[in-house]
Amino acid sequence: MTGMHMFLVVVAVVAVALMGVAGAAAVAAQWLPPVARPRVVRPRLWGYGALANAVGLGLFMFLGPLADAGLDVLPAAGWCLWMAGMAAQLLAQRPGRSAPTKTAS
């Protein structure tokens, strides 16, 4: 493994692990990372979505190269789980607001 590839693998592992830790904290203690606090109204749902993201992204990234060895179902399942986690996190957020309309004066 070359040095840059190893660096990217370590960064990916750390990112997926942090996503899983944030999801576990949101499920267990309803704690959210500071960047998610203003928009998220359902922290447990957001946490379950983050956990699904972490597992799905891990399956997709780390088992994807093994698709040629006959393990092509696991990366596809990981991608589907990753997208389901994104949808759960989207549902946990406050709905967007449309532009204000002018009222007759």
Describe the structure.
- This protein is mainly alpha-helical and 105 residues long.
- 64% of the residues lie in helices and 0% in strands.
- It has helices spanning 3-29, 43-63, 73-91.
- Helix 1 runs antiparallel to helix 2 (43-63).
- The chain is elongated.
- The protein starts with a helix and ends in a 14-residue tail after the last helix.
- 22% of the residues are buried.
- The mean pLDDT is 87.
SSE order and pairing:
Blueprint: H1 3-29, H2 43-63, H3 73-91
Helix pairs in contact: 1-2, 2-3
Helix % is 55-70%
N-C termini distance: 70 Å
Give the oligomer, counting copies of the same chain as homo and different chains as hetero: single chain
On the 0-100 scale, what is the average pLDDT? Answer: 87
Structural class: mainly alpha
